[in-house]
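ERR on first pass: missing label on line 2. Operator R.T. fixed the label and resubmitted. Corrected input:
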Amino acid sequence: MKPETPTERAATAGSLRSKDLLGTEDLSAEEIGLILDTAESMRPIGERAIKKVPALRGRMVVNLFFEASTRTRFSFETAEKWLSADALSFAAKGSSVEKGESLIDTARNLQAMAPDLIVIRHSCPGVPHFLARNLRAGVVNAGDGAHEHPTQALLDALTIRRRFGRLEGLRVVIAGDITHSRVARSNIWLLTRMGATVVVCAPPTLLPPRIEEMGVEATTDFDAALDGADVVMMLRMQLERQGASLYPSTREYFKRYGLTAARLTRARPEAVVMHPGPMNRGVEISSDVADSPRSLILEQVSNGVAVRMAVLYLLLTGHAWEGEPG
Amino acid sequence: MNTPLLVRGGRLLDPVAGRDGLFDLLLENGVVTEFGDRLGAAGARVLEASGLLVLPGFIDLHAHLREPGREYAETVATGLRAAAAGGFTAVCTMPNTDPVNDNRAISEFLVSKARGASGPRLYPIGAVTKGQRGEELAEFGEMRIAGAVAVSDDGKWLADGALLRRAFEHARLFEMPVVQHCEDTSLSGGAPMHEGAVSTRLGLPGQPAIAEAAAVGRDLLVAEVARGRLHVAHLSTARALALVREARTAGLAVTCEVTPHHLTLTDEEVARSGFSTNFKMNPPLREPRDLEALAAGLEDGSIDAVATDHAPHHEDEKSLDFITAPFGVVGLETAAAVVYDRLVRTGRLSLLRFAAAFSAGPARAFALPGGTLAPGSPANITLFDPEARWRVDPSRFESLSRNSPFAGWELVGAPVGTIVEGRVVWRRDEDRDSRDRS
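pass 2 clean. output:
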């Protein structure tokens, strides 16, 4: 059980209930709405010549990446800079803490630096939860193994909402390696909570057992899954897993599960295509689809910064964003 | 000191004789000499037991006491104190020490350490193969001379079927059961939790239930052809239990055990606790239908014993991420109370079956003395207060380790006295009980 902390806050429309963002599973529809609205109002900051507001001046954020990451780390660092937080990034991959150091020691060392917020990525599910239990600082999960990646799901939701004006009632297909995907899990929790229908599609070897119990439809037939889809979210095929006999070849995979322009005609005419990156062109998605006007892939990246600004701001200040003073 | 001890006025439960009633019990020279109504106390020390259950001494078939090698997590002395505090009068210890107990010298070392601690009896379980490497058989006969009662490669399932067959055959010479941790690792992949809806939700690799059943099935077939004595350690799935039950019906000499945590906790605890590694054990916590099947199996006698799989780990070792942290939880000091509170008090397990699962069942499985209170049997007695209310507080454990999945549980029922060969080796300090708070 999670111990109560002094910074734990009551649920109100203008704030988040927890000091941490560990997953979308724990978020209420109101909290999701609050984060997306806040992100929406922060987007203009990134469109200005001087991209900086003093909102988090004097606050210290530590980015702790135990697993390699380029775009998520850059996205968090950008969000931190634009909000004027003091950010310290620590790539723990390859360092002494990577393996073997007791997590409690990692937590105590961090605590000694008195950060206000920790952004953490780790290859094992539950590590952010452990830190959250043992640290006074807030913790943002930037990906824990195949478990959750809540800011990715939030930026996906912002992207969808901006295009369709809503999430409720949409049919969202998530296709690819569902078993190993934290992006899939976080999107499933968020989208089903907001009233969307989620269909997950993968070859049987990449579809985890009893995924239906998360409230989704599951299928191995990609063409059938695409019928009537509003959103097609493609996941990265993790090529490094090929040795594990999960799929014999990328060629065979692309034939049945690659998103091509021809296949996309089964979806609704206004359907959009998303991908959390990095893409394997010609494996899960063809280049013409990735670069087509229906692709929102680059918009996802810019929305990522806005969503992370919103999360950092809400967790660190405990109240809603009123816009810039003056 | 050979002063006789009179245990007076308790409710005596003898699962072998099927006896349940208020009797006095007289212990002399390390054996039970008499039971009856209002026995004379002349010359005897009197131990007042009214309101208590008087049970044959509890025997744990499966504990890890970590000595030699990891004395910071547990020693023979602290492990046996924990055992006594849990009502156990005897403990069988697994061979996965460092060095491995695969020889007579280590077995003798353990027995002599236990004798020095003068508490519960310690019965070593020797390794099946040298170094638990799964290659060549260890010297069963030599370890038997030193006091070993069974052989096992502990957490390492003997995957080599021909080697297992020879182990069964060789163990017959010394009338020792072969204890198997049944896990086909080609199916389980060594995953840190049970495969199911929860592992899918949490994104953790899962061990399918069939990894246990497949191993049990293979072992039963090998035991049959080798005319071996198989004991299945910590049975955890309905599927594997069905296989054991079927084999017993067919007359195969197979016994099995279940742990308190597999009877009372499900895989959901991993999620509920926020990935606490005190819910990481092997076999992993399963699903509600498995718990129901295991409770039924314990009540109908298909399962012989409750065993703790007491696996102490230092907090630093357990404070790793969920995939890297070691498997295992401590259990000696909570086992009887957890099973009593959650199964007996809820009506799913009868008192006599409770008594049997902790005494007669394990005694029979490993052919150990005890398990009954009949005159002439060893004076090993567990006193149990069925009304004691207490809260599990690992900081008060006698064990050196604190990795309990039951921390904070409010329980009714507690072992309050442990008598080994007529000598009281442990009594519950009343101040420990939270019932005194009320």
